[in-house]
């Protein structure tokens, strides 16, 4: 599932599930909608992506390339290292800015430190 949200300067794609060959039929319509919005910044939220193959990577690359040609930028947030690896193998990682500070909703519980000695005197 891919949802599109917009603000004055940003288009955000929120992707959930697989981004692969089985989903390719929806890619042209989504790409046309995103390009038609003509925002300077495209943010692709990949927190919900469970799998991405080269077809999904080609879709993201086409979006980033279209944005770059309009003078815009594309940011990936919540991308898994394996997804970044696929983009790197495709030779396209430099088309994207990587939001390394973003934490996906499920990552917050893992990021908080556990205080095992809370009842011990200091």
TrEMBL record:
It comes from the Bacteria. Residues 1-91 form the STAS domain. Pfam families: STAS. SUPFAM superfamilies: SpoIIaa-like. This is STAS domain-containing protein. It comes from Cellulomonas pakistanensis. The lineage of its organism: Bacteria, Bacillati, Actinomycetota, Actinomycetes, Micrococcales.
